[in-house]
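Each lists chain and fold; for instance:
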Amino acid sequence: MVRELALEADVLIENFRPGALEGFGLAPEALMEANPRLIVLRVSGYGQTGPYRDKPGFGVVAEAMGGLRHLSGEPGRVPVRVGVSIGDTLAALHGVIGVLMALHERGQSGRGQIIDVALYEAVFNCMESLLPEYSAFGAVRGPAGSALPGIAPSNAYACRDGQVLVAGNGDSIFRRLMTAIGREDLAADPALADNTGRVVRVQEIDAAIGAWTAGRTVDEVLAALDAAAVPVGRIYTAADIAHDPHYAAREMLLPVTMADGSTLTVPGIVPKLSRTPGSHRRNAPALGQDTDEVLAALRAKREAEG
């Protein structure tokens, strides 16, 4: 049945361990021989080749091998989880990118191809200059808590009733930020005119900002820094997101009707295309919900072909 379905499919997605599909008698090469336009996306922990290909791998392990876990948390502490299954998500996004690239190329060549996505590589691909820093300078980047290493000031700061994230690292933005918090002396200091000088004195700058935010509420800080055109943001919880007017205006709070008639709010559709925007057509299916329909269509096709 899989072979028959693959004859008309555009894309086959599988995330077994390498070799499992071949063990089922469903090697991608054999399926593509029968359907040369077929695109096969293979997602695994370590990829289809290499000495680790047969190791079991989950997203959390990929986050560790990809370099992310070492950077997560506070210096000197055990690394922490990001809070969502980011390794799986990054691998899925890279899989989507690969499928879109293959579909575009197929429009020119008429042929499909195999896409090999490894979870750890998807994480590693988002590690910015982690490897070049080590290659050029022998520098091993480590965790930095809520700060952005090498960029100053950019950090989370405590208020009377919560926390805010302030990114005042542009030269003119820094001057506006220091003026807004009453530290004109720092705004006018020539040693702090660019990022290089500010990084040297980042602890002093963070202390000044923290002292100012500590005596104010989150709303007061947001109002003052918005007025000064300084990038600042509330650190959102799920409740903040659910009641935020910008999320609502951007149609990111999507109400759907469940099978029992209740309403559930789910994330809206991104990215937003101007001419062919996405839409919610159906809820996520239950496991096996479409099996009977798919097999009935396959059976009807067999009968029609005699």
Residues 76 and 149 are 16 Å apart (CA to CA). The radius of gyration is 26 Å. The chain has a mean pLDDT of 96.
